[in-house]
Amino acid sequence: MAYTVGQIIEAKIINIKDFGAFVEIGPFQNGLIHFSQVVPQIGYGNVGDVLSIGDKVRCAVSEIKPDGKVSLTMRIRKRIDRKHQVEQVKKDIANMSDEDTNLRSIWMVLTNIQHYMLKYMQLAIPLKKGSASLNPKGNKLTAQIDSQIHFDNFKNEVRRLFSTDVVRHRILSGFWYFETDLDLCSNIQQFVDSCSNMYVSVRPNPIVEIQIKDADETSKGIIKTRLQNYYSQLDFFEINENLMVVTVPYENRTALEDLKEELGYALNGIRNGVPDLAEEGGQTTFNPARFVYEINYPQDGADRFLLTLDNEALLDKEGLRFGGLYGQRFIIKDGENEYKLGKLSKIEYPNVTFNLLPEDCGKIKEMAENDCITAIIPDMDDMTGEIEKVNRLRDSFDRITEHPEDLVNPQLASYLFDASKATKLEDVAIEQRVEQIKKCQLNKSLNESQIQAIAKAVEAKDLAIVQGPPGTGKSTAIAELIWQLVQQKSDGRILLTSEANLAVDNALDRLKFSLHNIVKPIRVAAGDKFSAEGFAYSQVEMKKWAGIEMSDIDTEDNAVAIDTDEYKSFNPQELVLNRWMKNIYKRSQLHLQREDLKRLWFDFLTDLPSEWRKEVYQEYVSHCNVIGATCSSISDTNYSATEAKGKHRDSRFIKRFRAIFGETEKNGYPVFLRFNTVIQDEASKATPAELSLPLVYGEKAVVIGDHRQLPPNLDREDILFKLHMQRLKTDSREEHDQIEQLESYVRKNFDILEKSHFERLFRQIDSSLRGTFDTQYRMHNDINRVIEQFYVDDGGLKCGVANESREHGIDIPNLISPNNHVIWINTSSPEVRDGTSRANRGEVEAIEWVLSQLSKSESFRSYQESLPTNEDREIGLITFYGSQLKRLKGIVDKETKKGLNIKMSSVDRFQGMERNIIIVSMVRSNSIAQKWGQKPDYNRFPNVGFPAQKEYGFAKSPNRLNVALSRAKRLLIIVGNGEHFSNYTNPQGQAIYRNVFDEVKNNPNGRIIEWNVRKPKQERVAKIVRVPMPIQRSVNLNTRDINAETDKNLRIKETWLTPDGQPVENPHFAVLELSTKAVKLLIGRDEETIKTATRFDFNNFIRDAAKPEAGKGLDSQNVMNMEYFRGRVLPVIRRMKQKMRFEGVDVVYTVATAAYRTAKNRDEVIECIRREAGINVRILSKKCKI
After folding, report:
1. pLDDT in tens, 776-827
2. Cα four-point dihedral sign 665, 667, 668, 672
3. Residues in a beta bridge with 34
4. What integer pLDDT is reported at residue 1015 of this predicted model?
5. What's the CATH superfamily of 808-1011?
6. Which of 762, 780, 791 is nearest to 818 (CA)?
7. How many CA atoms, within 13 angstroms, populate the side-chain half-sphere of residue 962?
8. Which helix (H) or strand (E) holds 621?
9. Per DSSP, which regions of 721-782 are E strands?
10. Does domain 207-277+285-297 have CATH number 3.30.70?
11. Which residue, of 434, 498, 601, 1104, is most buried by count of CB atoms within 10 Å of its CB?
């Protein structure tokens, strides 16, 4: 009979030995009950005192060894309870709510995404032909990455999407183009945005090219001035002194037709010196310009899109990607054979250097000399970190959702989906624990909210949640929590973990202030992952101190560690064993009176003999009760090795774990990965799967984070691009479909994927298990008032720091006074689209001004000199967009040379950091330009000269805003468009930005600086009326009208596009207008918003238009030429219908105007539209309004 671990059976005693009792558990099958598993408890050799041959006992299967031998235990009461727990958990999983089921789906999606992101990393990386070369010693290979693969991917995408090729421009150096039918591009902007992942910058609008020849410098100036008055978005390229190319973008075919009518007249007018008509009938005169020109209009269906390679982004992103592969081993292929290349040891992208491995060095040299090395491939046997993490994510998901019996605490499978199922606490238990904490605090400065949260965490049976807002002393509180847990159970095992190595090291570092060494932590990590503070708890460093022989893993970690900057900053005197000896000496002062004895005792403890050092080491390690490690490193299985060998192989972590706690427990059973308490920090940035990784090994979990700060760091565009590339390369139809489903899910549900699971747990869990720190010790109170709005629902956020300790004393006229701690520089400049990113020139100029004022200020220099460290003196410059960072880099480099210390970063990367002065660039604006340096066009956009836009992008997230504003200790300077952001309200109706702006404005010590008033006033470009165009019309379009009684067949307005053609409630609607010149489509974005809007707003609609010129199909007798109509107009109507179906439109209301009303054969025209396009049309009478 086959048994399972945990199964309870009845067994018969058949033999008794000193070490245990043999039992019969089935026909021809025996097992062993070890003496340590006998009830009542006995010692070695005493089994016969409580058991006799022939006795029948109830026991449970505790282990089934690979050879089939069965170990049993009589300690089954807990096992019975556990069995009941597992059964209940499985019922909970089977009866999940819809929300829990959705969470399970999210978990699975995120795990699969990570799987494909890893597969992307495994792709071969091409090298430039002939670039591989060996150094003189022959032990290093240098090569150059061939970035052409990204452009090849782009060309393949263009071919796939538009069935056309990318062509190098024959005149414009560095430019390419492709041609396609603009009318068939349903979402060209989405494609343009995605191109940034392939390091290609595509102009979002097609262009008309003008070649200007034989113009002198004066004429070129006139041409540029006048054309820019007409078309603000055009570009000039001076090829040589005799040739200049001008590109004029257009949005749609209607705009192209306008250009065709206008450009020739405009250029001839410029050449002939025809004056421009200005506002109010005035004239602007110009001298004639001498030149000849040629306009290259696109052919029908061949709109030209111009593009360039984004080499700067390529260097940035690929440099970062390869930076993540530093130390990774690579292989090369020669036919079917693989050869070990070596470790990536140097990266100056695109140049890379490898340390060659001896085993295949000869073959590598031969291939390099013969120019046969064309690609490198990451060695997946060495990519253990990423591969293992994906496998751990899948394994933890499997354990929690399918096999809760394999968890240390089976109830994790319930409360990780629904935290309300965690065991609640009685108030009296919390109160008693609070009193115990106050009697024995590690840190006497804890506030009441910290003590309350720690008390709940200590008393919790299975789960506690702690919210730690910025600056509230999380690391200090975690150290106190560890201290209190050890007070409760000194021989317990605690795991302190976070996704960030630095967070683990910071919390451990807070423990060093104790005069006691009851808490004995050991930090587990690869040698290059430690911070300087973390080395104090490194087992390798302890072994070196004690003179104990190191294992192979120790030697490898030490070799990597000693080359790091962090190790060079590590002070060996801070090693925990040294501190232990110093603590012993400090405590001994209470008992030693003689100075000579104190001196001898000090000398002895600080310079122990080698044998004593070994004893100290063994004593420390044998009583270790805290392990510090990152979440992704914690596992009991080496999945890659297990798969390769076909049987279980231990992970690096459990090898370390057993080196500390021993191979076997006191009862003789193997040591399994198990902790009494798992403390997980920064959990709000973890996905559900990442959050679960360490928790599966704990009896109890204390999860710490702040859902008001950043959620999991997921890059939507990067994910979609890498999934897409995998889909194109896979040969499996099943995998192709799975990736396609993932892409669709990410596009539709990214906001759900990005939501912090910590927030779900925080909302669900009972208040007796939830704590929130309510006092911050970082920011001046004026800065605290700016961000406290984010924590109103959590009980508020108080300022615990004296304002006097956060003064800066800087006094710069028109910028900062000593009592200013929050400043908003109010800009109105347009944002600029840069792929999926954004930048803002006005904000860059404002920040440049701020930095230049600081660098020239004596008061700022005095303030800097009063600060003790470089970090204190650094100015933090943060923004929401990578493109803005690139624009700011130039001014930062310039000001750094003047002596300023500036740390520039994105908001996401600045979480966890703080600086005395922070400057935040908001970037988004209520107007948008298509390119950097674009001039305003007040003809088209009278208010600000640029098109309006109402999006907020990344800045929409209150979490990002909170992180951005809460980094400053003494001075916060916000640079952004106050009007734009003040209009934003979140889904809960909160005007978070207006609250910030008003707080700065209404604070007596706040300051609003109007940038457009302060900076030199820009010359306003006069409104120019373009050169008048002659209007030609061959027919009178007002000769007929509609009779409502007799023309009913021409008055059917509705067309239902539902599958059965029947009306539905609350339909998604559209309006289609067929005018004399154009076909225009409006599709409602949100019907409820449109109904409740107080004024008409085009931004509430999806818009499309084309200009097929239906009126030109009428002859002199007002008869519509049906061949012209079918060839020119009907395809546009069909395309509009296709777009409506794509957008899910239920009903369309179609109206037609003058040309259709006038046509003598209008019945035939309307019937043609109804029969061949499936659209009903209502022709408006002259009296109707659209």
Report:
1. 999 999 999 999 999 998 889 999 999 999 999 999 999 999 999 999 999 9
2. negative
3. 20
4. 53
5. P-loop containing nucleotide triphosphate hydrolases (3.40.50.300)
6. 780
7. 19
8. helix 610-622
9. 770-772, 775-776
10. yes
11. 498
